[in-house]
Specification:
By secondary structure, this protein is mostly beta strands. It is built from 5 helices and 42 strands.
Length: 628
């Protein structure tokens, strides 16, 4: 049985478009009357009348024509006694253009769902308006009332916004594919925080901003992974004023975070579930000891970015800042007090006034490592010893040189005993460019660090990429014995792309500079140069030709030298706008690049001042691990 809701009117109440100047409203009424007659014929099972309402040229979006309509099709269109169908004309719009017209939406409801049609009509030579084309414009797989339809429309609208944003990100040629990237929006800061290996998964938190609380505030996003590259997003359980901090196990073996609560001070929160989705911030927060009368030294501590741990019956925390200090307490919610300065003494070349932020303190081999940043120097570390409630530094080394693009480190120890670290890779483009692309926030590859030999200003850390990245490799390519003449370069045949891993073994007895160029355009107009200078004992990434004039232009240079007869072994990762370089597992550099040309994909090896030999060059394409 069919029921028709034929109450119709021409006017704003029902959403009809007004006739253009010069169009007679009576024509719109004629079109509407023709549609009403078509619906009435369907309701009364008048097959002949239904057929006569179709023009001979009629077709629909499913491929039916008037000639292919038959009794069974008409019966299903008209309906049956077993199925109640309602056809609603109350909210249609009629648009007339000469002898043609469009009327929509016409809603047909039944127990099987809702379908919405747009009908095209034409006034034929006998003066009768007939249907020429029927288009399905919407459908639902269940019956709908007005409230349910409004809810579904809202769901569809949200889904469309999400899809449009995802498509924008997927089409961004500079958005990295296997470096973890902010899932949406511009995150600044984008510090990694709270890293911990827990119950078989790597958990990592990161700072992002939104206005869900009515004003802009920092929150901790949360991701987890079993392989360090494919990350699962968790609900955001740590909200409002969350600044940098770490995650550690408390005296009961429960994950606990120490963080800086904006407007309050350093604080603690304890996990309530093994997925680390729910947290309880301590009622006794903050843990920052208040200044005491007469304690003049305490006034010099400006504290942020804490790092806490539990040791020998006490909770300790590095209170980072312009004058880093140590605080301790016998209980998390107990009486926290300042112990004194973090550093037992100054180290040559590094002022005690250099701030210690995003601090991490951990053991590697027989030494303690203090990993941190200063806002002037970027990422850096000390090698020394934690004893007598102070840190005694022996060595200081940098992990960022030209600027602080490698920033805000965070680390964890996994079940294999590996110390794995990440850093925020700053985006130095202007804000307008970042806003145009709709996102900003990239982390470095997960680096496995271990203790090596003391190499002076080169430092003592061995630095490798987590081996899990090898699972992303595909399309392997291998070359051997490439000779490079002095002051020349050789195009590496068969190797190109902007999502690559390269391993190149090179040596030279007399070149003043040699290395590899990546993201090279065919004419060399755009290129990123990775070079070793044996005389200056440096490794560098030169981005002065990496992109257009408004992209970053600089040379990142790190101390690096080779032993006698030791070949240069470069491991290079290219990921759209990120280039990370690892040299002989003991030095690493990173740059952001923004090539303008889509053909800046080539790879070349070069030598200056003398020849060089490439013993072997291996390459792989790297499969994206980010969902978008």
């Amino acid at each position: 049985m069919l029921k028709g809701l034929l109450e119709t009117s021409i006017g704003p109440k029902y959403g009809f478009k007004r006739a253009p100047v010069g169009v007679d409203v009576s024509i719109e009424r004629e079109v509407l009357a023709a549609m009403q007659a078509h619906v009435a014929a369907r309701m009364s099972n008048d097959t002949d009348a239904v057929l006569k309402s179709y023009s001979d040229e009629w077709a629909d979006s499913k491929g039916y024509t008037k000639q292919t309509l038959n009794d069974w099709h008409l019966a299903s269109v008209i309906g049956s006694a077993k199925l109640e169908i309602t056809i609603d004309l109350r909210t249609v719009e009629v648009v007339v253009d000469g002898s043609k017209a469009i009327i929509s939406p016409i809603l047909t409801d039944s127990a099987k769902g809702r379908i919405s049609h747009k009908h095209h009509l034409k006034r034929e030579s006998d003066g009768v308006w007939r249907l020429t084309y029927t288009e399905t414009v919407d459908w639902e797989l269940r019956s709908m009332d007005e409230d349910m339809q409004a809810l579904k429309d809202a769901i569809d609208s949200t889904a469309m916004l999400v899809r449009e944003h995802r498509e924008q990100l997927l089409n961004d040629r500079w958005r990295p594919g296997y470096h973890f990237v902010v899932p949406e929006g511009v995150a600044a800061p984008f510090d990694p925080n709270g890293a911990i290996y827990w119950k078989g998964r790597y958990h990592l938190f990161y700072i992002f901003q939104d206005k869900r609380s009515g004003k802009k505030a920092d929150h901790w996003g949360h991701i987890s992974s079993t392989d360090l590259f494919h990350w699962r997003h968790h609900p955001t359980g740590l909200l409002d004023g969350m600044y940098s901090g770490n995650c550690f196990l408390n005296e009961h073996g429960v994950p606990t975070i120490c963080y800086h609560q904006v407007g309050l001070g350093n604080a603690l929160a304890v996990a309530l579930d093994d997925d680390l989705d729910e947290w309880e911030k301590l009622a006794t927060n903050p843990i920052t000891p208040p200044p005491k009368a007469g304690a003049q030294d305490q006034e010099k501590y400006r504290s942020w970015d804490p790092f806490a741990w539990y040791e020998n019956g006490f909770y300790y925390a590095i209170f980072g800042g312009e004058h880093p200090a140590i605080a301790k307490s016998p209980a998390m919610g107990g009486d926290w007090r300042y112990v004194g300065d973090l550093f037992a003494h100054e180290i040559d070349g590094v002022s005690l006034n250099e701030d210690v932020s995003c601090a991490e303190l951990f053991r590697l081999g027989d030494k303690d490592i203090l990993l941190c940043i200063s806002h002037r120097m970027g990422c850096r570390y000390y090698v020394g010893e934690w004893k007598d409630e102070q840190f005694y530094p022996d060595i200081h080394a940098q992990m960022s040189w030209r600027d602080n693009i490698f920033f805000a480190p965070e680390s964890l120890e996994d079940d294999q005993g590996r110390r794995i670290m990440w850093a925020w890779l700053l985006d130095l483009r202007d804000l307008g460019t970042r806003f145009d692309t709709g996102w900003s926030g990239v982390m470095s590859l997960p680096r496995v660090i271990s203790l090596g030999d003391d190499r002076g200003e080169e430092g003592r850390l061995r630095i490798e990429v987590a081996e899990e990245i090898e699972r992303l490799r595909y399309r392997p390519h291998h070359l051997e014995s490439i000779e490079v003449d002095a002051n020349a370069e050789v195009v590496v045949a068969g190797v190109s792309g902007d999502s690559l891993e390269l391993i190149v073994d090179m040596e030279s007895a007399n070149a003043t500079e040699f290395g590899i160029k990546v993201c090279v355009s065919p004419d060399g107009e755009e290129q990123t140069v990775i070079s070793f200078d044996p005389l200056e004992r440096t490794l560098s990434i030169d981005t002065r030709l990496s992109g257009p004039a408004d992209s970053p232009k600089d040379i990142e240079t790190a101390p690096f030298s080779l032993e006698k007869n030791e070949p240069l072994r470069l491991r290079v990762f290219i990921d759209k706008s990120v280039v990370e370089v690892f040299a002989n597992d003991r030095q690493a550099l990173v740059r952001r690049i923004y090539p303008a040309r889509t053909d800046s994909l080539g790879v070349r090896v070069f030598a200056v001042g003398g020849g060089a030999a490439v013993r072997a060059l291996q390459s792989w394409h790297i499969s994206p691990s980010n969902p978008y």
